[in-house]
Design goal:
The structure holds three protein chains of three kinds. Chain A is an alpha/beta fold. Chain A has helices spanning about 5, 60-70, 90-100, 120-130, 135-145, 160-175, 190-210, 220-225, and strands at about 20-30, 35-45, 50-55, 75-80, 85, 105, 180-185, 210-215, 230-235, 235-240. In chain A, about 35% of the residues lie in helices and about 25% in strands. The two termini of chain A are about 15 Å apart. Chain B is an alpha+beta fold. Chain B has 29 helices and 20 strands. The longest helix of chain B has about 45 residues, at about 310-355. Chain C is mainly β. In chain C, about 10% of the residues lie in helices and about 50% in strands. Chain C is built from three helices and 23 strands. Chain C has helices spanning about 1-30, 40-45, 385-390, and strands at about 60-70, 75-85, 105-115, 120-130, 135-140, 145-150, 150-155, 160-165, 170-175, 185, 190-195, 200-220, 225-235, 245-255, 260-270, 275-280, 285-290, 295-305, 310-320, 330-335, 340-345, 350-360, 365-375. In chain C, strands 1, 2, 3, 4, 5, 6, 7, 8, 9, 10, 11, 12 and 13 form a 13-stranded antiparallel β-sheet that branches. In chain C, strands 14, 15, 16, 17, 18, 19, 20, 21, 22 and 23 form a ten-stranded antiparallel β-sheet that branches. In chain C, a hairpin with a 5-residue loop joins strand 21 (about 340-345) and strand 22 (about 350-360). Chain C is globular. The chains are: A alpha/beta, B alpha+beta, C mainly beta. The interface of A and B includes residues 120, 125 and 129 of A.
């Protein structure tokens, strides 16, 4: 079964607007000598509210796929829709709007701004999107509370522990009520206990809010929270379960 | 192993070419200004020595009675020493070629028959004797022997209409003289030298006759025969001559001149050091940036077990290369700068201290050594902080957190206390400008003020950022908040840039205020002092007021003009006060008391003092002299005169901004009696109330006739002249200000560029979570604005303190003038605006570049 | 040295120029104008006559000495100072009178010092120039005192003459004791005729046999004490001369019997004699004058200078036939040949002046002869003749 065929049964859900739909995505990086094919003909539909795990070894293309989903990278070929909207071909400004309104990110290395407080880090996407005032702060606070860090809201992110940082990152990813959250190895830099806490939080929060989550991981623990697990080898989908 | 380490150490230089370049420019500019200004000053001052050398030839001793003429009769006693030494009697006058504003050169009156000096400029004996007719004319009163190099220079400077024959028209004093020209052949290599030394020769007999110096000499050069001990001869000569006639090495005069120029050179040097400091800050910034950027690499090296010294070497290598390259570039740049500024410096020196011809700018080994040391020193100083930073990086630190951490939130008490101490020191010096020590108070004060500013730079930046945070957040919440946050994060780095900017601005503020204070004070002073309506001076005078004289016989006809109310015949010459050159003035105090004014330092009415001066051995002295020699009214000064050594009681100290060398002013009656010199340097005319200066000027010109080359100037023009001289005096400060500003801007640019580079990944994250390019650019601009605002505000504060120190301490100490502190607000504010905009503009290119990197790419960058 | 060379060059060329002016003016005026030179009392009153005569355009003081050091080696010393008056002829150069500088060149001074070492056949010349000035060079008018720098010749209070000269290489200082109370006069009132018609003449005084003692210091050698005899000449004129004369031969010699012989012959360009004078003075000061028909001068040997190319007669036989006495034959030659003074880089005045020695024979009695021979006008032709003649007119 090809990757395309593997994705095909999901077309049943296509009647409802998919949270994300990829069709025939190729991503090729020009390199000296021979081009690197990071993704080869990947098609995938993610249903709203679904949790999908992308599994594969390092270099299998899962981060690339995640970046394309997050509009941080453009595919070489193929089409991509997010929340029913065609994304390929959109201008940078429209992509920015999409990211502000519909996407949330959690990174392996947290990528908080260390000199901002936990609260400020959380509220940052709202600020950047032009949402200000008490409402934004209130929302950020409630999310911090939801990840259990209400008491550390004013602590600079640089002085939080790794687990705490990633929890802040989770709060930040959800603060703008995105339709789709993309998490790249969210537990890759955490010990087991912290990893489990973060995963539990992530799953709980997305389920609770009906948010779609795509996470790239090579950890079985992380994959366990997913509804579907998609395996990538050399840029191709080799299996779904 | 070593090669790898070297390669590892030097890699960042290559990888960040832009930063390397900016750093190099900073260090090089600092070195260049230091070397360049010193070279220019040196070349200017050296032309004194060059002339002295050309004039003294091989003489080891000089017999003179400066500032008085040496009577020819002293040769009777000197003649007894002819078995031990050759004697070369000499006279000297400054002449201008072609016109009263032409090239100035010295004519030496020597015995052309026996004196070897006129050929000492390098003349080689021609293969055949000159034809008899041309030699005959040497004794003739009309033949001037001019070394080829000088002749060429005079020819090049001749006016287009001037006849290009073998004669030369010169102005000496108020008269035009025509001389036949005979060239002294010389080697091509010597021509430049003789052109600079600017000495021509006339036989002593026609010299005395044409310039009215019969019976007098200016000095006798003594050339000891082989085997004669110079010091023994010197003491024997001194004993034989007795009295006040001095026997000194001929360099003595050049040395005196150089001592006099020392304060000027010292001031320049202090100012040049400042640009070096700014350069150090720039390099510091770049090196710190390099260390921070390589945190991961360093921490990995630590983990791999690199030893401390090796790491220090690795990182120091970068500084070393920057220091060496900056030093070399700085020396070369300095040479260019010196050539460019030589004219300005020479003009300043000429106007302050008397005529000089600019010497050649030549790099010596010493300059290379000094330049490299300055470059290396700057780099080492700059590297110390970053190096310490690097040594603190723990192994494998990068695995935990790749981002440079924010500094701990601890009030910088140490810095604040140090800054307070520095400020207190500066204020103490302001309070007690004459309190203690000598010579260095001004520098200490200035250094304290600048130190205060530098120490406060970091804390003040933090303070300002916190202060502005709410405002920024309100104006532009995302970008503003981001800017505040990142500024706080990078406040140490930004603090360095703030320091660079504030130093540059403070220096400009201080120097501009000093100049403005001079301008305002001198304007006021000139208004009060220059009460005469017309001034008659020899047209050939350009620099020193001692140049050129007029006969006393003009006084009566001038006074008899119906337009003229009164005349003050004023004489200025050099004198020695305990071996130090200063000006001796002699004026008609009676006339001055009636019509003029002499602003006294104690503010009292000068008239009773002036009246008291007439007729007795009394003197007024100028403020700079009083300060330098610690003299006050009631003291006295002893002067050598042709009638012996006399003491003159000091009646009062008066303000004078015309010369920092100092004036002793006597009543003309006393002067005539004691000095037996009736010549006049300036006739000051007081006109009847209904007479316009133009009419009186025409009357004076008509009276003296066309053959007298005098300049009749009205007071307005004199004041402009005073201002012009001041302007020229400070012309070089403009250049220094410019360099300081450029270096500071480079520093701002460098810092921001480095910060952006360091934040590339962070910017990528921000883009990912929804920051627009505009927001990112704006945040960086706001950060630049914060930096500029902090630098300029604190710079203004520091500048105000610095200007007070410069005006009240340094100036007073170096020149001895009392100035009223004045700040050129327009200029300083305009500059602030310019710097602010420039700092913002400096932030734009890196900001734009950073914002345009695709987020994914940015995030994947180390 | 290079620099000095330039200065000297200028000076000597200048001297030549001045002299040509001086002499031509004097020649033009001839004997018609009353001259300072005509005043006898300035020549006959001593010590005044030893001093300078500013009215005369040309004047020189001349000492030639033959001396022996402790080891018996012979040294010849020539010390000459010329004064060239510029004012005397109405101010050849520049202005004078009221307001004139003391340096205004009324006089130029010009000195040669030469020493020869006959054992080593070494000959050295130094020169010096000066001008009228306050104290640095001059000539006293009241008594003998002429000097340029530290070269001087003066009469000390004890009546002895004192001279000094030399340079860094060698310096000589001598005290000379006059052999008589007044110098020998070669003519009435010290007149010395320079042409057959006596239209041109000088004033000429000599002391042919001054007892000399002094020191010679040469660089790097011990000081030598010298003793011997010196010939003193002092001569001044207005510079006028017979323009056909290009050179002369002059001899001043002492004979072993105490007599002294002085003779000169002025030559024209063809080498023909234009004028001759000879005088023999005995130890009592009695003078016998010889005319051109009482002398026969025969050069015996010539020496060609490798430097100048001039061919000098350096050995002579001279037959003198004084009235009422046996003929006197003088046989002499140069102590050594190379005693030429070459100044070709400056004035181009090149002449031979050196020690000679030989015998004198009269009526079968032979006696020693020693003295100085001067040969001028042999080197080159053209301009130098004029300058050199000018410098040496009237000898």
């Amino acid at each position: 079964m090809t990757a395309a065929e593997a994705a095909a049964p999901e077309s049943a859900a296509a009647s409802v607007a998919a949270a994300a739909r990829l069709e025939g995505i190729f991503k090729t990086y020009p390199a000296a000598g021979e081009d690197v094919h990071a993704l080869r003909d990947v098609s995938l539909t993610v249903a709203p509210g679904e949790i999908v795990a992308l599994l594969g070894r390092s270099g299998s293309g899962k981060t690339t796929l995640l970046n394309i989903l997050g509009t941080l990278d453009r595919p070489t070929a193929g089409s991509l829709s997010i929340a029913g909207q065609r994304v390929d071909g959109l201008a940078e400004r429209e992509l920015l709007k999409l990211r502000r309104e519909s996407l949330g990110f959690v990174f392996q290395f947290f990528h908080l701004l260390p000199y901002l407080s936990a609260l400020e880090n959380t509220v940052l996407p709202l600020w950047l999107a032009g949402v200000q005032g008490p409402a934004a702060m209130l929302r950020a606070r409630s999310l911090l509370a939801a990840v259990g860090l209400a008491d550390k809201a004013n602590r600079p992110a640089g002085r939080l522990s790794g687990g705490e940082m990633q929890r802040v990152a989770v709060a930040r990813a959800l603060v703008n009520s995105p339709a789709l959250v993309l998490a790249d190895e969210p537990t890759g830099n955490l010990d087991q206990a912290n990893a489990e806490t973060v995963l539990d939080l992530l799953r709980g929060l997305v389920r609770e809010r009906g948010v779609t989550l795509v996470l790239a991981t090579h950890s079985d623990a992380a994959a366990r929270i997913a509804d579907r697990r998609i395996r990538l080898v050399d840029g191709r989908i080799t299996g779904i379960d | 192993m070593f090669e790898q380490v070297v390669a590892l150490g030097l890699r960042p230089l290559r990888r960040h070419l832009g930063r390397t370049f900016v750093t190099l420019v900073g260090v090089a500019a600092g070195v260049a200004v230091s070397i360049g200004i010193d070279l220019a000053a040196h070349a200017s001052i050296r032309s004194f020595s060059e002339s002295a050398r050309a004039v003294s030839g091989r003489a080891a001793l000089r017999v003179h009675h400066r500032p008085l003429a040496l009577p020819e009769s002293s040769l009777m006693r000197l003649a007894l020493f002819q078995d031990r030494a050759a004697l070369h009697p000499t006279l000297e006058v400054v002449a201008r070629a072609h016109a009263s504003n032409g090239t100035a050169f010295t004519i030496l009156g020597v015995d052309l028959l026996t004196d070897p000096r006129y050929a000492a400029t390098g003349a080689a004996a021609p293969d055949a004797p000159p034809d008899l007719e041309s030699v005959r004319s040497i004794f003739d009163s009309g033949t001037l022997l001019v070394p080829e190099g000088l002749a060429e220079r005079l020819r090049n400077a001749s006016p287009p209409g001037a006849a290009r024959d073998d004669s030369l028209s010169v102005i000496v004093g108020t008269r035009r003289y025509r001389f036949r020209l005979a060239l002294v052949p010389e080697r091509a290599a010597d021509r430049k030298l003789t052109a600079a030394a600017a000495v021509a020769f006339l036989d002593i007999a026609p010299f005395q006759e044409r310039f009215g110096r019969q019976g007098e000499l200016d000095w006798v050069d003594v050339e000891p025969k082989p085997g004669v001990d110079r010091e023994q001869l010197r003491s024997q000569l001194a004993a034989a001559l007795g009295g006040d006639i001095r026997v000194e090495p001929p360099e003595e005069r050049a040395l005196q001149m150089e001592r006099m120029l020392d304060s000027y050179r010292r001031n320049l040097r202090a100012l040049t050091l400042v640009s070096l400091i700014v350069g150090v800050l720039l390099a510091y910034n770049a090196l710190l940036s390099s260390v921070l950027q390589r945190r991961g690499e360093i921490s990995l090296l630590r983990a791999l077990g690199i030893s401390g010294p090796l790491l220090a070497f690795l990182l120091g290598l970068e500084a070393l290369v920057i220091g060496l390259a900056g030093g070399v570039a700085g020396v070369l740049l300095g040479l260019v700068l010196a050539r460019g500024s030589l004219g300005v410096v020479s003009r300043t020196v000429s106007e302050l201290y008397g005529r000089i011809a600019p010497g050649a700018v030549t790099l010596t080994l010493e300059h290379w050594i000094v330049g490299l040391c300055l470059g290396l020193g700057a780099a080492v100083l700059a590297a110390a902080g970053p190096l310490r930073e690097a040594m603190r990086i723990r192994p494998l630190e990068f695995l935990r957190d790749e981002h440079p951490g924010a500094p701990p939130e601890r009030p910088p008490w140490g810095r604040l206390i140090a800054a307070a101490l520095a400020a207190a020191l500066a204020l103490y010096l302001l309070w007690r400008p004459d309190g203690w020590g000598t010579g260095a108070r001004g520098y200490i004060g200035a250094a304290a003020a600048l130190l205060m500013g530098s120490l406060l730079a970091g804390p003040f930046f933090t303070f300002l950022t916190r202060l502005l945070a709410p405002i920024f957040a309100r104006i532009s919440p995302p970008a503003g908040r981001l800017a505040i946050a990142t500024a706080m994060a990078a406040r140490r780095r930004l603090g360095v840039s703030v320091a660079a900017l504030l130093l540059a601005y403070a220096i400009v503020w201080g120097m501009a205020s000093l100049v403005e204070s001079f301008r305002v004070t001198v304007d006021t002073w000139a208004g009060a002092t220059l009460r005469a309506d017309l001034w008659v001076t020899p047209q050939s005078r350009a620099g020193s007021p001692t140049e050129g004289t007029m006969p006393a016989a003009w006084r009566a006809p001038l006074a008899a003009l119906p337009e003229v109310l009164d005349v003050d015949a004023f004489r200025v010459r050099e004198t020695l006060l305990d071996g130090e050159i200063c000006f001796l003035g002699a004026g008609e105090t009676r006339v001055l008391a009636k019509h003029g004014y002499l602003p006294l330092v104690d503010g009292s009415d000068p008239r009773p003092h002036l009246a008291r001066t007439a007729g007795g051995r009394n003197a007024f002295i100028s403020e700079p002299l009083a300060r330098r020699r610690h003299l006050a009214s009631g003291d006295s000064v002893a002067l050598d005169t042709p009638t012996g050594r006399h003491r003159y009681a000091i009646i009062a100290v008066y303000r004078d901004y015309a010369s920092d060398r100092g004036y002793i002013v006597l009543d003309r009656e006393t002067y005539l009696a004691d000095f037996r010199d009736s010549l006049v340097s300036t006739y000051a005319l007081y006109l009847r109330p209904d007479v316009t200066p133009e009419r009186a000027s025409a009357a004076v010109s008509a009276l003296l006739g066309p053959e007298e080359f005098v300049r009749v100037t009205d007071t307005k023009t004199i004041r402009q002249e005073v201002r012009r001289v001041l302007h020229n005096t400070f012309a070089v400060t403009d250049a220094l200000e410019l360099v300081a500003v450029i270096v500071a801007l480079l520093s701002v640019l460098g810092t921001l560029a480095a910060l952006v580079l360091e934040r590339t990944r962070e910017i990528g994250v921000l883009r990912a979570i929804g920051a627009s390019q505009g927001q990112i650019t704006k945040a960086l601009l706001l950060e630049g604005a914060l930096l500029a605002a902090a630098g300029l505000l604190l710079g203004a504060l520091t500048g105000a303190l610095l200007s007070a120190v410069l005006v009240h301490v340094l100036n007073r100490e170096s020149f001895g003038w009392t100035l009223t502190l004045a700040t050129p607000w327009r200029r300083t504010l305009l500059l602030a605006a310019f710097l602010f905009v420039a700092a913002l503009l400096a932030a734009v290119p890196p900001a734009r570049r950073a914002a345009s990197i695709p987020p994914r790419e940015a995030m994947s960058r180390a | 040295m290079r620099r000095n060379a330039v200065a000297r060059l200028v000076a000597l060329a200048l001297l030549g120029a001045v002299l040509s002016v001086v002499t031509s003016k004097a020649t033009e005026r001839g004997a018609t104008t009353p001259r300072a030179l005509d005043r006898d009392e300035d020549a006959t009153t001593f010590p005044r006559a030893w001093g300078s005569h500013p009215g005369a355009a040309l004047e020189w003081w001349y000492v030639t000495a033959i001396l022996r050091d402790e080891s018996g080696r012979t040294h010849g010393i020539q010390w000459t100072l010329f004064r060239v008056g510029l004012d005397a002829t109405g101010g050849a150069v520049g202005s004078s009178g009221a307001g004139a500088s003391a340096w205004r060149a009324r006089d130029l001074y010009f000195a040669h010092v030469a020493w020869g070492d006959s054992a080593k056949r070494a000959f050295t010349v130094t020169e010096r120039i000066g001008r009228s000035s306050p104290a640095l060079a001059g000539a006293d008018t009241a008594d003998l005192h002429v000097w340029i720098g530290d070269w001087f010749l003066r009469r000390e209070v004890d009546g002895r003459f004192h001279l000094r000269g030399g340079d860094d290489g060698a310096a000589v200082e001598l005290l000379l004791e006059p052999s008589r109370s007044r110098p020998v006069a070669w003519g009435p009132a010290y007149r010395s005729s320079k042409s057959p018609d006596s239209r041109f003449y000088s004033r000429y005084q000599s002391d042919p046999a001054m007892k000399a003692a002094g020191t010679l210091v040469k660089a790097g050698e011990p000081t030598r004490k010298l003793r011997g005899t010196a010939w003193f000449d002092h001569e001044w004129s207005d510079g006028a001369y017979d323009s056909a004369v290009v050179g002369w031969d002059w001899l001043g010699a002492r004979l072993g019997d105490g007599r002294a012989v002085m003779l000169y012959r002025l030559r024209d360009s063809r080498g023909m004699s234009r004028h001759f004078f000879g005088g023999i003075v005995d130890r009592y000061g009695r003078l016998v004058v010889l005319g051109p028909d009482q002398a026969r001068l025969s050069p015996l040997r010539f020496w060609t200078s490798p430097r100048s190319g001039a061919r000098y007669p350096v050995a002579w036989r001279i037959l003198l036939e004084p009235e009422g006495a046996a003929p006197l034959t003088l046989d002499f030659e140069a102590a050594f040949d190379a005693q030429e003074l070459v100044t070709e880089r400056s004035t181009r005045v090149t002449y031979w002046e050196g020690m000679v020695g030989g015998t004198a024979e009269q009526g079968g009695a032979r006696t020693r002869l020693e003295g100085y021979l001067e040969l001028t006008g042999y080197a080159g032709g053209g301009v130098p003749g004029r300058i050199s003649t000018g410098a040496r007119t009237g000898r």
